[in-house]
DNA sequence: TGCCTTGTTTAACCTATGTGAATTGCACGG
DNA sequence: CCGTGCAATTCACATAGGTTAAACAAGGCA
């Protein structure tokens, strides 16, 4: 049983980790952030965290599991626009005081922490750096959306799939969710991956098999392994710049 | 010569118009915003406004003309990720105090106003609603990116092109740039439209001709006319919700 | 034990869109 | 008036990826 992920963390630990990665925070700010996250609420797979932008008085932070934002097309097909991993904010509608136009749904069993908006306002007033950190979260998410856009506009199926796997590897690694052997949980179905990448399920399957044959990726039982991350990155020219503060 | 667009405006007028559309601003805030925009700087077509996120101490607002944000793919092709029309902020990097990862280039002769960052900070401190208004600008831009993502992921060529034309019609109309007869300047080349929509130039051309034959759109000499906006909207199920504050 | 359900895989066939290359129409500069 | 060059257009052909349907595997449950 090598690769136990990590000991249990306090709810706020994950968000704290994310924010300090993006911004130097004072000791006081860090404590405030850590304490602001409420006891996690648990969601089953395919349960809605945010329904069509119905926003209330709290910011939701994914603490564990996997989720996505999506939009429906008129023909009933679904386009996934972002994947949400632990540490991510589920919905940025609170920033502009307007409900989000999208819904957020879990893709696996997940837990979500709440940060009360009034409380957050107080923290931000005392520690303005926290606001910058949050805005960086938003900027990175926007960057990820842009990169997905680039994938759909200009990359072929093989590059789309490998680029997304590289991104997941990178993001989950930052969250401490990649094991020693380079494997990580990716609780997606191939159909869902297709809904994000604009590919049919069948073609996602074909493409994943090519990656297997190339010895660059395996994906079984919701676990992805990249035996040769460097080879994978160079295959699709993955550059994680868009996922980092600078 | 019907349809003269509108009399000359003071530089800050356009931005003022945009922000008040998104947010109720007090008289003081409106004056502050109006006065904060510097004398416009003029750019030729295809000149860079922001180069690879080299950010300085001012926010740039497009006052007239047309621009886009883009990213290059490793194979040298270019993916346009956003079109920027008068009233839009060119780059939101200043929000998170990190350089943008993209470049902004004009697509026609354009003018750009600058808002000094320190000055803006002062305004925001006195009138926090201005910050919310700016964050709404950012949210709407994110919404537009998402919608383009949806186009690339799930719409066919005809719907992509018509949806984009509907969006342009809507956005330019808000900026007061659509003439009585429903026509508006779209200083793009078909190749550039293809770079945004993930289509080859040839196929953009084919598609535009279909729209012509359907009597839904004409596009000549950089001028687009939608004789039947409603038909156009229903063709591609255009819903401008994602472009508005609510 | 055996039937559902959900997800992956395979196969045959089809089409929307890309590619390459030539043609046309203009606007511009000399 | 003639070249030059960019943008729009056309044509012939190629292909990546979609579609439909069926088979297969594994887990849950009666």
- Ends distance of chain A: 37 Å
Determine the CATH topology of the largest domain in chain A: Jelly Rolls
Structural class, from secondary structure content of chain A?
alpha+beta
Number of domains of chain A: 2
Q: Order the strands across the largest sheet of chain A as they lie in space.
A: 2-6-4-5
Q: Biggest interface in this structure? A: A-B, 42 and 42 residues
Order of helices and strands of chain A: HHEEEEEEEHHHEHHEEH
CATH superfamily of the largest domain in chain A: Jelly Rolls
Strand content of chain A: 15-25%
User: What quaternary form is this?
Assistant: homodimer
Largest sheet of chain A: 4 strands, antiparallel
Low-confidence stretches of chain A: 1-6
Question: Class of the largest domain in chain A in CATH?
Answer: Mainly Beta
In short:
The first copy, chain A, has eight helices and ten strands.
Which tags fit this structure?
Jelly Rolls; DNA-binding; alpha+beta; 246 residues; homodimer; four-stranded antiparallel sheet; Arc Repressor Mutant, subunit A; disordered N terminus; globular
Describe it for me?
The structure is a homodimer of 246-residue chains. Chain A has 246 residues and is α+β, with helices and mostly antiparallel strands. The first copy, chain A, has two domains: 11-137, Jelly Rolls (Sandwich); 155-243, Orthogonal Bundle (Arc Repressor Mutant, subunit A), CATH 1.10.10. In chain A, 43% of the residues lie in helices and 19% in strands. Chain A has eight helices and ten strands. In chain A, strands 2-6-4-5 form a four-stranded antiparallel sheet. In chain A, a hairpin with a 5-residue loop joins strand 4 (67-72) and strand 5 (78-84). In chain A, helix 5 crosses helix 7. The longest helix of chain A has 27 residues, at 128-154. The first copy, chain A, is globular, with a radius of gyration of 18 Å. The structure holds a DNA duplex (30 and 30 nucleotides).
